[in-house]
Specification:
9 strands; alpha/beta; 2 domains; transmembrane; about 325 residues; sialyltransferase cstii, chain A
């Protein structure tokens, strides 16, 4: 009997020890589940902070409009007349042909490739510009760790992986900046003019052609099932609300960044602005005219950079300026 009593006591002690370790872990875990559920019920995402959270900055709330969709789809292809005329006038010099070009939207493929519905997740994104401040930054691993990596124009990764990474999920381009893309990369066409839509239609059909007496790249290597057409309505929204008509229209880099604000929950921004010597140039080029990209007569890079800096100051983005190891 005494032996059985000692055995029972021993088992009780073991059970109590297990309870001392397991129950606190269980309560912590169950509390985290309840907390995450409540967080997703009341917020836009499961991150600690979400890009689209309101009430943090009046300046941001006056500009950010989550109802405006960044990509052209079959459900939002109707473009208000005033916005259509603005877009057609960006680079078109043939008014008689404008309305003919506008009909292209009715025949162009519309893809719903970008998930911008806010569900209970935490989508982390990297927007990677092409500034020379990426040289020597060693940001590559950090960039590749994000869920989405958005690049633009003629961005080069081969040979620069340590600084810029090698992962790409979305690549912004227009015909004059087109390049071949890898597998499973979304081609995001920014149509600055109606002819850009003709170009896309042709390259998707593997036709080589001449437009406006200038040879454009075509065909290109790209996944036809992952094409996104940047919506002219969203284009005008960025011009009105974010760049406030400074410059004739926003740059590709600015369009990509605001695109990121709308489809991502947390946003890290790399490769924007000047380098440590104050020069504006691409990281893969040795450009002696370092200020050439700041004032183009079309974009106002100084104003755009001020907007990006403000977004970083209010905590909507994490801005990495090229100093090794630190933002």
């Amino acid at each position: 009997m005494a032996y059985n009593s000692r055995k029972i006591c021993k088992r009780i002690k073991v059970f109590l020890v297990i309870c001392c370790f397991v129950l606190p872990l269980y309560f912590i875990y169950s509390h985290s589940l309840v907390k995450e559920g409540a967080l997703c019920a009341n917020k836009a995402c499961s991150c600690e902070t979400c890009v689209s959270d309101r009430g943090i900055s009046h300046w941001f709330d006056m500009r950010f409009n989550s109802s405006i969709q960044p990509q052209l789809t079959s459900s939002n292809e109707k473009i208000p007349q005033d916005i259509l005329l603005w877009w057609l006038g960006l680079q078109s010099r043939r008014p008689r042909m404008r309305m003919m070009y506008s009909r292209l939207f009715e025949t162009m493929p519309k893809f719903n490739s970008v998930e911008n519905s806010r569900s209970c997740h935490c989508r982390r994104c990297a927007i990677v510009g092409n500034s020379g401040n990426l040289k020597g930054s060693s940001y590559g691993q950090l960039i590749d760790s994000q869920d989405y990596v958005i690049r633009m124009n003629r961005a080069v990764t081969k040979g620069y992986e340590l600084d810029v990474g090698k992962k790409t999920t979305h690549h912004f381009m227009y015909p004059e900046s087109a390049k071949d893309l890898g597998a499973n990369v979304h081609l995001v066409l920014v149509p600055f003019k109606p002819l850009d839509l003709l170009w896309l239609e042709n390259v998707l059909l593997n036709r080589n052609f001449l437009l406006m007496f200038r040879k454009l790249k075509g065909p290109i290597t790209a996944d036809r099932d992952k094409v996104i057409i940047f919506h002219p309505v969203f284009f005008k929204y960025v011009h009105d609300k974010w760049t406030e008509h400074y410059g004739k229209y926003p740059s590709t880099g600015m369009l990509a960044l605001i695109f990121g604000l709308h489809i991502c929950d947390q946003l890290s921004v790399f490769g924007y602005g000047w380098d440590r010597q104050g020069n504006w140039h691409h990281y893969w080029e040795n450009n002696r005219l370092g200020g050439a990209f700041r004032v183009t007569g079309v974009h106002n890079a100084t104003f755009e950079m001020n907007v990006i800096t403000r977004l970083a100051e209010i905590g909507k983005i994490q801005l990495y300026r090229g100093r090794p190891g630190t933002p």
